[in-house]
Amino acid sequence: MNIHFFKYQGTGNDFVIMDNRDGHYDALTEAQIKLLCDRRFGVGGDGLMMLNVQEGYDFAMQYYNSDGRPGSMCGNGGRCLTAFAWKMGIRKDHIRFIASDGPHEATMEGDNWVNLLMKNVDSVEADPAFFYLNTGSPHYVQYVAQLGDFDVYEKGRSIRYNERFKAVGTNVNFVEPLADSNGIFVRTYERGVEDETYSCGTGVTAAALTFAGPEARHYEVPVQTLGGNLVVKFNKTGPQTYDHIWLCGPASLVFEGDIVI
C-alpha cells in the first residue's frame, strides 16, 4: 500500500497524519501503524492521526498511539490535526470536530497557532503527594524540584506500571513552578509511547489546572516543555471544577511524503 502522509509537530510532540476522508486508510492494521510511527524503520512519531468525516462536525479525529493501538484524547494531536484540516481547506472561524472524548472546538491564529477547547474537568483527586485527573486522557501530576535533572523515564514508568495503574495505564507528569514567571515547567511520561515525550497537551492541561490558586476565577498559565511553550487558559468554578479550558500553542507542518508498506 502506498501512503501519502504529513508529519506535524506541536511543541515537539510529533505525529504522522493522513487525510482519510475517503476511507482509503481504514484497513491499516495495528502493526502497520506501529511501523509508520517507528523512528528507525518508518516515518517516526509519537502517534498517528487520521482526518475522518463525521456528520454534524467539520471532521473527526482518529488517534493511535505509537504502539499502533487506538488512544485516548491527545491535546497536541488535536491542535496539529486542526492545523492540518486548515491546510486541507477546512477554514472557519470556529472549527468543530469530534474525538474519542467527545466534541471539541478550535480556532486558528495565522497558519500555525491553534487554540483548542478541551473537555470540562469536574473532579480532581488531590493526594498530599500527587494529583490525579482526566483531561481527555488520565493524568498523574506530581510536583518536584530540579525537574531539569529529574529521571522522568524511570520515575514515570514506575508509576505508570504500579499496582494501581498498570492494567489501564496513566500518563505521568512532573511539574516545577518557574521562579521567574507565573508559570510551570512540565515533563511527561506518556503511556502508549512508553517514554518521555517533548510535550503532552492533555498533560500540560492537567498540570496547569492543579497549579491554579484557591480562588474561583479565570487563569492563564504559561507552560514550558522540552519542545516549546504553551498557554493554558481556563475558569476555575469550584474547589475541583474547571470549564472553558483552552490549550493554546503552535502546530506546524514538518514535511510530507509517500511511503510504501
From TrEMBL:
Report the EC number(s), separated by commas if there are several. 5.1.1.7
- Claim: Isomerase is one of the keywords in the record: yes
Give the principal location in a single coarse category.
Answer: cytoplasm
Pathway(s) it belongs to: Amino-acid biosynthesis; L-lysine biosynthesis via DAP pathway; DL-2,6-diaminopimelate from LL-2,6-diaminopimelate: step 1/1
**GO MF annotation terms:** diaminopimelate epimerase activity
Site feature location: Could be important to modulate the pK values of the two catalytic cysteine residues: H139, E190
Q: Does the keyword Signal apply?
A: no
A Gene Ontology cellular component where this protein is annotated is: cytosol
Q: What family is it from?
A: Belongs to the diaminopimelate epimerase family.
What is the name listed in the Swiss-Prot or TrEMBL entry for this protein?
A: Diaminopimelate epimerase
